[in-house]
Design brief:
GO terms for molecular function: proton transmembrane transporter activity. This is ATP synthase-coupling factor 6, mitochondrial. By secondary structure, the protein is mainly alpha-helical. Helix content is 47%, strand content 0%. The relative contact order is 0.04.
Length: 106
């Protein structure tokens, strides 16, 4: 098996079909030189610094009100209500079907 792997690797090297993913192997501490990537990273870091414990970032009272209204509407539509945890996976119950006995004595 090892010889087969070496043989395939040799053929691939000779054919010039060698590719490397520099994005995966690049060190994390390397400075980003692309201005678009740098801006993207800055915005992600800025957003992370504004993180507020699972709530919307930079939300106005109007947006919060609209969110609550929509969540209440969806909760009512899909069987939620007071005391119902809508984040919990539903429990399915499949009762055993009743089968009529077969009369074999005809």
């Amino acid at each position: 098996m090892e010889m087969l792997t070496r043989g395939i690797a040799g053929v691939v090297r000779k054919s010039g079909f060698v590719a490397r993913n520099f994005g995966v192997s690049a060190p994390a501490a390397q400075k980003v030189t692309d201005p678009i990537q740098q801006l993207f990273l800055q915005k992600i870091q800025e957003y992370k610094s504004k993180e507020s414990g699972g709530k919307l970032v930079d939300a106005t009272p109007e947006v919060e009100k609209d969110l609550k209204t929509e969540l209440d509407r969806v909760s009512k539509q899909f069987g939620g209500g007071a005391g119902v945890d809508m984040t919990k996976f539903p429990e399915f119950k499949f009762p055993a079907a009743t089968v009529d006995p077969i009369n074999s004595a005809n």
